[in-house]
Design brief:
- The chain is α+β, with helices and mostly antiparallel strands.
- The chain has a five-stranded mixed β-barrel.
- A hairpin with a 2-residue loop joins strand 2 and strand 3.
- The protein is rod-shaped, with a radius of gyration of 29 Å.
């Protein structure tokens, strides 16, 4: 064991921290692994154990303190580009068959959709433009 240099142990530690990073997808393990690589560099340059451990701790804590909040902020954001039924909300459609609280047909994004009015008392006649407020299954809810 004494024949192996300290930098090798740090690299083994970095690889060991990389395994749970891949298995659990927790980025904190990756940040700890980067700290271990930084400590391995110092060990390779001949710095003492105290400097190596301090470098590991400082780099890992700095990465966790800086990168983690940025990653959490980005993961909480909604995608800028809406796709699927989310992209249809807020679009205008043309009434093909009278739409009321019980049903009807509209042309939305070049396709014919079943539709019903949001307010059961409202009715929209053929040719009128309506706004899509929600999609429930294959039915567009319009106003």
């Amino acid at each position: 064991m004494n024949d192996i240099d300290a930098w090798v142990w740090w690299l083994v530690g970095a690889a060991a921290l990389g395994i749970p990073l891949v298995v659990t997808a927790m980025p904190e393990f990756g940040m700890l692994a980067v700290g271990a690589v930084a400590a391995a560099v110092l060990a390779g340059l001949g710095f003492g154990v105290v400097a190596q451990v301090l470098t590991f701790v400082v780099v890992a804590v700095a990465l966790i303190a800086v990168v983690r909040p940025i990653a959490l902020r980005h993961s909480a954001q909604r995608p800028q580009l809406a796709t699927g039924v989310e992209a249809l909300k807020g679009k205008q459609a043309v009434v093909l068959e009278r739409v009321d609280g019980s049903g009807g047909r509209i042309k939305l994004a070049g396709e014919v959709w079943s539709a019903r009015s949001l307010d059961a008392g409202s009715a929209y006649e053929v040719g009128q433009e309506v706004d899509v407020v929600e999609i429930e299954g294959a039915t567009a809810i319009v106003i």
